[in-house]
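When time allows, look over one protein, given below as sequence and tokens. The question is which stretches look regular and which look disordered:
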Amino acid sequence: MAVTPDLAVDFMDMTNDRHLITRVVDARAGYVPVVGSYAVVGDEGAAPKVARIMSIDERGIIDLEVLPGSVEAHRDLLALA
């Protein structure tokens, strides 16, 4: 099943502690990121992942913590939204 990411990211920028930065403007149409919630994140050519939204600053910069494993493994977290 194809999964459309909520937020576009560049997995090449992921830190050793699994953090990534993206921007509110990189959200798919209709998706509103909320601190503490979970989102599907992805980029072209890589399998999507689930990430927890850690913070969103006044400039619209989003700090994410990417969870290990597949999107399917975290369906329960995505259902909390």
Observations:
- The CA atoms of residues 4 and 78 lie 13 Å apart.
